[in-house]
């Protein structure tokens, strides 16, 4: 049986006999909205609470736009928001990079499309900036109850209305990518992000759990709750208007708008229905993050490993397909993520038991998984030394690995997990 798996801008075709295929896991094929802009207009015209135009009139508005690492329809999302802001006093757009790369060409492209959309709508008074977590003009707004300092981009402070455009999906330690992430880490300083992400080492900081979840038994995520509190500190007396979407390959699956909690809870229900899976763990699994930009670097691709790791048995093997055309990680993350992971695995674990440094949680979690499985074999554009320095094995042909698995055990069951950055996998 031919199975197509996402890789970079295209697909890798694999042949797996039906008798050896345990299943193919990817987001359920919900019907995309045919009229994307029409659907966005519908939810924006019928929000939970006041309309955006009503909230924005004669007010200062800050619009938080996700960065280039999201394969969402940026143009349509921004174009649907801007016409509703024409009567605001001023509008500040911020690309919410968090600790991601600032001046990436695709971020520059997002800035350009915002300017074009603003010009098309004759938006009178606006500015656009890309957040830099290491900027010198951060504003200190105090601390969360867990002690995270709230250092914020000065352009994000003291607005009457905050508009968050959030493409939601499962997130391996924040529960879900959602409205709070556009604030913290989105527009926060390095020290804030580091303090918050230290909580990623807490086993309760995991996917499927968030303080806005409709199920009261699935709300105790300390890291996500710290993000929520950070958002509330940043907003102060202002109001948050949320445009939340669920997308697949840039196509709109679901949308809602208005007040934060009902919109976010509704999106989580959709994600739990369409992108959460309970599986029988197997000894051999194939994982793809979902192609570019989900596999733009090892740093980004690793999320798929974390979200799907419950599918592999102890001492099993993972075939990991991630192009990584942008290398191992953003420059800021190389030292504490990639370089840290080159240590012996027991040293990686031990070295993070003291003071946490940003990005170390990724090395820690990767090391835990590498110690659990027999091997991770990686099909990638990264060179052999780069891959094998962090305890994986680079392979040249993924089909060869599948054939070897079947030759070693003709009854082996192989589970395929595609678009791993957008699914959450639980073991039965």
Descriptors:
alpha/beta; globular; six-stranded parallel sheet; 2-enoyl-CoA Hydratase, Chain A, domain 1; 14 helices; 2 domains; six-stranded mixed sheet; Rossmann fold; 20 strands; 428 residues; 32% helix
Number of helices: 14
CATH class call of the largest domain: Alpha Beta
Order of strands in the sheet with the most strands?
A: 3-19-15-16-17-18
Give the assembly state of these chains. Answer: single chain
Q: How many individual β-strands?
A: 20
Largest sheet: 6 strands, parallel
Count of structural domains: 2
Would you identify the CATH architecture of the largest domain?
A: 3-Layer(aba) Sandwich
Question: CATH fold name of the largest domain, please?
Answer: Rossmann fold
- Tell me the structural class: alpha/beta
> Mean of residue pLDDT?
96
Q: List unreliable stretches of 5+ residues.
A: none
What does the overall shape look like? globular
The CATH superfamily title of the largest domain: LarA, N-terminal domain
How much beta, percentage-wise?
25-35%
| Gap between N and C termini | 26 Å
Radius of gyration: 21 Å
Helix-residue proportion? 25-40%
Topology:
Blueprint: E1 2-7, E2 10-15, E3 21-25, H1 36-45, H2 52-56, E4 60-66, H3 74-81, E5 90-96, H4 105-120, E6 126-130, E7 139-143, E8 149-152, E9 161-167, E10 169-171, E11 175-177, H5 179-183, H6 190-197, H7 222-235, E12 239-248, E13 251-258, H8 260-274, E14 276-279, E15 282-287, H9 298-308, E16 312-321, H10 331-341, H11 345-351, H12 360-372, E17 375-379, H13 384-388, E18 393-394, H14 398-408, E19 414-417, E20 424-427
Parallel strand pairs: 3-19, 4-5, 4-9, 5-6, 9-12, 14-20, 15-16, 15-19, 16-17, 17-18
Antiparallel strand pairs: 1-2, 7-8, 10-11, 12-13
Helix pairs in contact: 1-3, 3-4, 9-12, 10-12, 11-12
């Amino acid at each position: 049986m031919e199975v197509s798996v996402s890789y970079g801008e295209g697909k890798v075709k694999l042949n797996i006999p039906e008798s050896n295929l345990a299943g193919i896991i990817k987001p359920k094929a919900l019907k995309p909205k045919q009229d994307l802009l029409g659907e966005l207009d519908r939810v924006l015209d019928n929000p939970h609470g006041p309309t955006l135009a009503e909230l924005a009139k004669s007010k200062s508005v800050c619009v938080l736009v996700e960065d280039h690492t999201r394969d969402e329809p940026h143009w349509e999302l921004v174009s649907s928001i801007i016409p509703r802001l024409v009567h605001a006093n001023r509008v500040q757009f911020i690309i919410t990079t968090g600790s991601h790369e600032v001046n990436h060409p695709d971020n520059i492209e997002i800035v350009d499309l915002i300017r074009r959309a603003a010009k098309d709508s004759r938006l009178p008074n606006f500015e656009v900036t890309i957040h830099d977590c290491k900027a010198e003009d951060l504003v200190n707004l105090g601390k969360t109850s867990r002690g995270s300092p709230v250092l914020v981009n000065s352009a994000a402070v003291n607005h009457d209305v905050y508009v968050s455009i959030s493409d939601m999906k499962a997130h391996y330690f924040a529960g879900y990518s959602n409205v709070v992430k556009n604030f913290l880490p989105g527009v926060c300083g390095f020290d804030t992000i580091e303090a918050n992400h230290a909580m990623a080492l807490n086993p309760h900081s995991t996917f499927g759990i968030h303080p806005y979840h409709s199920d009261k038994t699935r709300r105790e995520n300390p890291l996500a709750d710290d993000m929520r509190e950070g958002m509330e500190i940043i907003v102060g007396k202002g109001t948050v208007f949320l445009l939340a979407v669920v997308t697949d390959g840039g196509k709109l699956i679901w949308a809602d708008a208005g007040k934060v909690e009902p919109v976010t809870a509704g999106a989580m229900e959709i994600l739990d229905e369409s992108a959460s899976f309970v599986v029988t763990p197997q000894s051999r699994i194939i994982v793809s993050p979902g192609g570019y930009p989900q596999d733009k670097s090892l740093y980004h691709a690793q999320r798929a490993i974390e979200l799907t790791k419950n599918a592999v048995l102890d001492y099993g093997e993972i075939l990991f397909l991630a192009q990584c055309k942008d290398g191992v990680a953003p420059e800021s993350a190389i030292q504490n993520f990639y370089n840290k992971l080159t240590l012996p695995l027991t040293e990686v674990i031990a070295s993070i038991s003291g003071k946490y440094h940003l990005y170390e949680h990724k090395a820690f979690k990767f090391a835990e998984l590498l110690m659990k499985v027999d091997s991770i074999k990686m099909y990638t554009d990264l060179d052999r030394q780069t891959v094998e320095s962090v305890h994986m094995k680079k392979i040249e042909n993924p089909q060869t690995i599948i054939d070897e698995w079947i030759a070693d055990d003709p009854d082996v069951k192989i589970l395929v997990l595609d678009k791993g950055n957008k699914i959450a996998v639980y073991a039965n």
